[in-house]
Amino acid sequence: MLIDDIDAELDRGRIEALLSELEGSTQTVVSTSRRAIANRYRDRASIYLVERGQALSESESNARVFGEEGFEPAHGETESSEDDLEPAANG
């Protein structure tokens, strides 16, 4: 199953509920532009960064790519915290 941009319409609680339901039952590929969401599932998922048309495995936070200036960080954003996620909706 492919879920593109999971946080576009779902809040944190609904993301957790959906992924918990799918876990172990089917192979699921989820895309998001929010690092905090990916980091939340790091212990049970493979994380890949897509940068300049390349998918890079991110087993460590120091993923690097070779660019015009030599080796550069694989992403320009700073590490997001769990606080960057919206709280789960009530009800």
Question: What descriptive keywords fit this protein?
Answer:
two-stranded parallel sheet; alpha+beta; 22% strand; 2 domains; 91 residues
Low-confidence stretches: 60-66, 74-82
Q: What is the domain tally? A: 2
Helix segment tally: 2
How far apart the termini lie comes to 26 Å
Arithmetic mean of pLDDT: 74
Strand-residue proportion: 15-25%
Order of H and E elements:
EHEHEEEE
Q: Could you say which structural class the secondary elements and strand pairing correspond to? A: alpha+beta
Going across the major beta sheet, what is the strand order? 1-2
Using the CA coordinates, give the radius of gyration.
14 Å
What features would you describe in this structure?
With 91 residues, the chain is an alpha+beta fold. It has two domains: 1-45, no CATH class; 48-77, no CATH class. 19% of the residues lie in helices and 22% in strands. The protein contains two helices and six strands; from the N terminus they run βαβαββββ. The protein has helices at 12-22, 35-40; strands spanning 2-3, 29-30, 48-51, 54-57, 64-67, 70-73. The protein has a two-stranded parallel ribbon. It has a two-stranded antiparallel sheet with strand order 3-4. A two-stranded antiparallel sheet has the order 5-6. It is globular. Mean pLDDT is 74; it is low at 60-66 and 74-82.
Give a short overview.
With 91 residues, the chain is α+β, with helices and mostly antiparallel strands. The chain is 19% helix and 22% strand.
